[in-house]
Amino acid sequence: MPEPTSIEEREESLEAVKARLERNEFFSAGLDPRFPNQNQAKRCWVNYVDYHRCRKQKGDEYEPCYFFRKVYRNICPHAWVSKWDEQLDAGTFPYDFNKDLQNKQGGQGHDPHGDSHGKH
Amino acid sequence: MASWEQLNFQNSFSPLMEQFIFLHDHIMSILTLIMLIVGYSLSKLCLSKFNVTKQSENHELEILWTFLPGVFLIIIAFPSLRLLYLSEESEKSPLNIKTMGHQWYWSYEYSDFKDLEFDAFMSPVEKTTSFRLLETDNHTCIPTNTPIQMFVSSTDVLHSWTIPAMGVKADSTPGRLNIINIIAMKPGLFYGQCSEICGTNHSFMPITLDTRPIFFFKEWVKTMINS
Ligand SMILES: [Cu+2]
């Protein structure tokens, strides 16, 4: 069982960035047909939430989660991300990740009928 | 950049600005035509000694001068609408840049390159070797002939990010993240100024865009991430 890689370990080193530059490899979030608007704020938010939701549900080692992180880091202003990170740490982030977990389990244990979630 | 006694647009350095200039010239040619015809008729009527005193109605003339302006408006409206949609057309860009308006400077984030971030303040007027009130201490560098997306937002009040030579301008609004699409056709230095009144130093937060061929852009990125 490999140790879960921390965010710091995932950070690209300076040398890696330079090597990537030499190979003309740029990363950009590209276009998202869900957000065809000039205002991309919602897209930034959705990707930030998706990343944390993905890690809550699939664990830190689930690789596809890190795509969301790449996208939100690419398009979200740094100030927004650090504000949300602080809110996550303080537990005041305005999104209920536990609700998603309950939905995913079909409301087991909390909702005896399981109807309200519409999902089994 | 803009210079003294300049009446027209700045020279275009992006396909979008080229189209804007075409539209402007197209509308100006129609306006000149109307001005000449109406001006000629007016002066001719005023100077004429033959006054039409018995004329009370003319259906053909009424129909003509009702529909003709409509036709002219349509000829103006369609290219204008086309350009309106074209100016918000996004292309997949290999590079996203974020810019935040502050009171009173711009900050830039190149997140693809190890969180390359910097602030761009106006160079002091006494010290600058370049253009007064337009030069910044850090230039925003982008590669030429490459579609670039700028994400514009603000941390405090409304600002507006613009490069007139590229035909782009977008409000930088707190809580919004507006995109601007730039394709720079030539290398050079391009200047813009904050275009939304934002406080005392509104006039002193210029934008300097440095467009370079991709090789030199990469060199710039390397020196920036090293420092
Ligand atoms: Cu301003």
UniProtKB/TrEMBL annotation, chain A:
Listed Basic and acidic residues bias regions: 110-120
Presence of keyword Cytoplasm: no
Record has Disulfide bond as a keyword: yes
Annotated compartments: Mitochondrion
Keywords assigned by UniProt, alphabetized: Disulfide bond, Mitochondrion
Record-level GO cellular component terms: mitochondrion; respiratory chain complex IV
Main location group: mitochondrion
Taxonomy, superkingdom: Eukaryota
Gene3D superfamilies, per database record: Cytochrome c oxidase, subunit VIb
InterPro entries linked to this entry: COX6B-like (IPR048280), CX6/COA6-like_sf (IPR036549), Cyt_c_oxidase_su6B (IPR003213)
Region described as Disordered: 95-120
Record-given protein name: Cytochrome c oxidase subunit 6B1
Organism: Ramazzottius varieornatus
Gene name of the record: RvY_16632-1
Automatic annotation (TrEMBL), chain B:
Pfam family name, one: COX2
Catalytic activity: 4 Fe(II)-[cytochrome c] + O2 + 8 H(+)(in) = 4 Fe(III)-[cytochrome c] + 2 H2O + 4 H(+)(out)
Occurrences of domain Cytochrome oxidase subunit II copper A binding (ranges): 92-223
UniProt keyword list: Copper, Electron transport, Magnesium, Membrane, Metal-binding, Mitochondrion, Mitochondrion inner membrane, Respiratory chain, Translocase, Transmembrane, Transmembrane helix, Transport
GO molecular function list: copper ion binding; cytochrome-c oxidase activity
GO cellular component assignments: mitochondrial inner membrane
Annotated coiled-coil segments of the chain: none
Subcellular location: Mitochondrion inner membrane
Domain Cytochrome oxidase subunit II transmembrane region profile stretches: 1-91
Membrane-traversing stretches: 20-42, 63-85
Gene3D superfamilies: 1.10.287.90, Cupredoxins - blue copper proteins
Cofactor binding description: Binds a copper A center.
Xref: SUPFAM superfamilies: Cupredoxins, Cytochrome c oxidase subunit II-like, transmembrane region
GO process annotations (BP): ATP synthesis coupled electron transport
Alphabetized PROSITE patterns for the sequence: COX2 (PS00078), COX2_CUA (PS50857), COX2_TM (PS50999)
Topology with respect to the bilayer: Multi-pass membrane protein
UniProt main location, coarse: mitochondrion
Listed cofactors: Cu cation
Role: Component of the cytochrome c oxidase, the last enzyme in the mitochondrial electron transport chain which drives oxidative phosphorylation. The respiratory chain contains 3 multisubunit complexes succinate dehydrogenase (complex II, CII), ubiquinol-cytochrome c oxidoreductase (cytochrome b-c1 complex, complex III, CIII) and cytochrome c oxidase (complex IV, CIV), that cooperate to transfer electrons derived from NADH and succinate to molecular oxygen, creating an electrochemical gradient over the inner membrane that drives transmembrane transport and the ATP synthase.
Subunit and partners: Component of the cytochrome c oxidase (complex IV, CIV), a multisubunit enzyme composed of a catalytic core of 3 subunits and several supernumerary subunits. The complex exists as a monomer or a dimer and forms supercomplexes (SCs) in the inner mitochondrial membrane with ubiquinol-cytochrome c oxidoreductase (cytochrome b-c1 complex, complex III, CIII).
Family as reported in the entry's similarity comment: Belongs to the cytochrome c oxidase subunit 2 family.
Entry protein name: Cytochrome c oxidase subunit 2
